[in-house]
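Q: What structure does this chain adopt?
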Amino acid sequence: MEVLYSSTRGDGAPVGASQAILKGLSEDGGLFVPDHIPALDKSLKELSEMDYKQVAYEVMKLFFTDFTGEELKTCIERAYDEKFDTELIAPGVEAMGAYYLELFHGPTIAFKDMALSILPHLMIASAKKNHIRQEIVILTATSGDTGKAALAGFADVEGTRIIVFYPKNGVSPIQEKQMVTQKGANTLVVGIHGNFDDAQTGVKKIFSDKKLAEEMEKKGFVFSSANSINIGRLVPQVCYYVYTYAKLLGEGRLKEGEKLNVAVPTGNFGNILAAYYAKKMGLPIGKLICASNENKVLYDFFRTGTYDRNRKFVLTSSPSMDILISSNLERLIYHIAGDDADTTKKLMAALGGQGKYEITAEMKAQLGDFYGNYADETETAAEIRRLYEGCGYVTDTHTAVASAVYQKYLKETGDKTGTVIASTASPFKFTRSVMNAIDQKYDSMGDLELVDELSALAGVKVPRAIEEIRTAPVVHDTQCDVDKMQDTVKEFLGI
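A:
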């Protein structure tokens, strides 16, 4: 059955998957959502006998119904290849009573690779399918990981250009070095004087500027997005939850139909929304544990039903979660409102105006699948230390937030259901924070010196992505104020 996509805010006719992928964001500022969540059409036992690429195909074919089987399989083959340092693509590690799903074995050692390795191929296939002749300009705001993963995916891809905005003082030194050393004639990296929410709001503003869109079209350009607001990024994330459940079933760690909880470190809400979609497809997921850092806007939302971004923005050791406007939450709001675009539009207008909104009691009652909590900086460091001292397993700061929140969930509920913790980045991306959590004595070392120390401590080889930036020259040094983002885009495109 065909799946069509429409805006969470209701404007425009429904479109096929390829058009939704190309547009990224609807003209009315809404996000594309499927008209129904398709059910898995293979049994979990059948899926348990498949490798990652085969499972990815079985999931994506159900959402991307206007792609041929051959087109999808080609995209998947090109995405999940030797760029990943393991044939498993998404391996898991059992540590201290939980299963850590390692989503950081791709080229930029963060979970964004799981979707951004395939998005360029989906986009180029979509452009051909829709006879798009303009050059596609990927415009992205990043809190640290999306930027490098998108740059790596789109660098020198014919028919595309990519511009990444990041908060100049809001990412880790290694995250920044990964971005500013990115090669590719079609790439631009810009540090903005502001935080991630400023960057994300600026990008959305550029997308919704109709006059700019007309100027772009005359010059042969069309905008698209690589952020998790793009449905072409969200759907590939559903795949690794289905794969993980099937893998655990195949290994005899789960019985068919047995529930599995999922804990996810959450910023923009895309990763946990993918788990929610997997559950709606029929995957036996129990509780969706939404873990926040000190920017705990989502924790407060799940507790009170009020989303309020009017608060102090906190810079933490888990920068990819330093977010006060969780864009993908809009999709969940749309679903719990009964797929009601008018309600969603009003709530998003309130968020844009007063900076907050409150959902109805009926909508709040539909959030029973979710549990929200947060871990502060002290708790995050303590969790890194607990895991290392307990079994020698070293996690990054974001994974530690999810792990610490899972420990709180266990204490509060006593729920002994097996739990997968989404491990969203390699500890090598946040070496200083990780090593300081283990022992303060490491603070005197340089960032790259710490890399070697972490490798020895964890017994893990230094990832290729880190080795590459040791001596890589800085290619991008552009900075701008938030109100100059559009000018920066126009200058890069020669408009």
